[in-house]
Amino acid sequence: MHDIKVIIRATEMQKHSDRMRGLGKTVAFVPTMGFLHKGHLSLIKEGRKLGDDLVVSIFVNPTQFSPEEDFESYPRNFDKDLKLLQKEGVDVIFSPNEDELYQDGFQTYVELKNLPNHLCGISRPIFFRGVATVVTKLFNIVRPHIAIFGQKDYQQLAIIRRMARDLNFNIKIVGFPTVREPDGLAMSSRNSYLTPEQRINALSLYKSLNQSKKLVESGIKDAKRIIDAAYALIKSYQDTAIDYIAICDPETLADMETIDRPVLMALAVSVGKTRLIDNMILNPE
Ligand code: PAF
Question: Which of 66, 131, 178 for a ligand 1 pocket mutation test, highest count of atoms within 8 Å of Cβ?
Answer without folding.
Answer: 131
